[in-house]
Fold this protein.
Amino acid sequence: MSLDNKRGFTSEDLEAAFDQADTDRTGTLNLEELTALFKAMDPDFPENDVQAFLKYIDLDEDGRMSLNEFKLLFRSCSAEEGKILK
Ligand SMILES: [Ca+2]
C-alpha cells in the first residue's frame, strides 16, 4: 500500500487504532469515541474539527464511522498533506 512510505500508517495500524478507539465494541466509532481518539493523538484537537471530520467521512450519514470510513479518512488526509507539502 502506498500509505506505508508516507506517514507510516499501515492498514494494520489503522485497524489497531480503530479497535482501540471502539471502546464499546460496536464496530463503529460514534462522535464520542472519535473525539477521544483525536484527543489522544492531540489533546488540543478542536471538537468542532472532529465533528467536521465525521460529517465529511460519514457517507451513509448514520453518525458513526465504520472501519472503512476511518481508513478513507486517514488516506485522504495523507494524500492531501502530500499535495500541500509538495
Ligand atoms: Ca463504538
